[in-house]
């Protein structure tokens, strides 16, 4: 068995957790809010040192709450702001967020018709070159539409792009969850594209340590290399213990070296976000 993160004294950074204190969660997320206090307990139990907070859509004050936590404890929390599809001036929002302490990147949701319409209408077209110029990383949730990341990565080679959830559609499990694997692996041709492996155990039909995923994950690592794979949990939707989400990568993937794990489990996301 591999040494644990405590043995290695490796910093564990979770690249995606929703926190909220208001509103009711939707879909496959847990119903009890993950407040700052709840997250503190969860992090201690799982051995997680830092977290990138992604404001949930269901909390009307989610962005302010995430930023509050990040500004109180900048060594533990940072934020990726979610760009709404109907925002009037996305470039102005980009500039405002760049000046906001704790905010270190932008997330775009291209997983519904209205959000895709905003993209195709050209609402965000000016964002890509400006984010490239400013060095602001962009995460994209685009299941079934990975050609979006392909197009933007090709046109803006200096823009740092993160493909969320390995491109897996919401709720997909079993072998069909990765029907798009060829399309995902093709994105590895762009050096500016990284992939976020978030809560991947939930895509498996078998229990921990999710042996059915080993071949798929190994192919992802072979394509992108350990320098462009980012671990995360998406804690609010996990169906297994948070600690298992950590140990799945740290202790059960035999092809990852100690140095690889240091990158995947925190080094890569901190580098992309400029979070030293």
From TrEMBL:
The Amidohydrolase-related domain covers 14-274
Task: Give this protein's Gene Ontology molecular function annotations.
Answer: carboxy-lyase activity; hydrolase activity
Q: Which Pfam families match?
A: Amidohydro_2
Q: Which InterPro entries match?
A: ACMSD, Amidohydro-rel, Metal_Hydrolase
- Keyword Cell membrane assigned to the entry: answer is no
**What Gene3D superfamilies does the record point to?**
Metal-dependent hydrolases
UniProt keyword list = Lyase
This protein's record includes keyword Cell inner membrane: no
Q: From the record, what ranges are coiled-coil?
A: none
Name of the protein in question: Amidohydrolase
Q: Which organism is it from?
A: Solimonas marina
């Amino acid at each position: 068995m591999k040494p644990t993160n405590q043995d290695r004294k490796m910093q564990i950074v979770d690249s995606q957790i929703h926190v909220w204190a208001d509103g009711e969660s939707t879909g496959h997320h847990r119903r009890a809010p993950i407040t700052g206090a709840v997250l503190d307990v969860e992090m201690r139990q799982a051995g997680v040192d830092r977290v990138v907070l992604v404001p949930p859509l269901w909390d009307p004050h989610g962005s302010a709450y995430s930023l509050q936590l990040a500004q109180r404890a900048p060594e533990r929390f940072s934020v990726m702001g979610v760009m709404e599809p109907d925002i009037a001036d996305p470039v102005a929002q980009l500039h405002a967020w760049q000046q906001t302490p704790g905010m270190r990147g932008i997330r775009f949701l291209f997983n519904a018709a209205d959000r895709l319409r905003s993209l195709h209408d050209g609402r965000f077209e000016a964002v890509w070159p400006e984010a490239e110029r400013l060095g602001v990383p962009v995460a994209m949730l685009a299941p079934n539409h990975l050609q979006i990341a392909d197009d933007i990565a090709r046109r803006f080679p200096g823009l740092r792009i993160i493909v969320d959830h390995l491109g897996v559609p919401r709720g997909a499990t079993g072998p069909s969850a990765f029907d798009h694997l060829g399309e995902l692996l093709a994105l590895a041709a762009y050096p500016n594209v990284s992939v976020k492996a978030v809560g991947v155990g939930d895509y498996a039909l078998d229990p921990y340590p999710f042996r059915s995923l080993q071949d798929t994950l190994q192919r992802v690592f072979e394509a992108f290399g350990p320098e462009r794979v980012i671990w995360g949990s998406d804690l609010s939707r996990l169906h297994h213990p948070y600690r298992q989400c950590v140990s799945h990568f740290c202790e059960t993937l035999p092809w990852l070296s100690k140095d690889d794990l240091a990158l995947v489990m925190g080094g890569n996301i901190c580098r992309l976000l400029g979070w030293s």
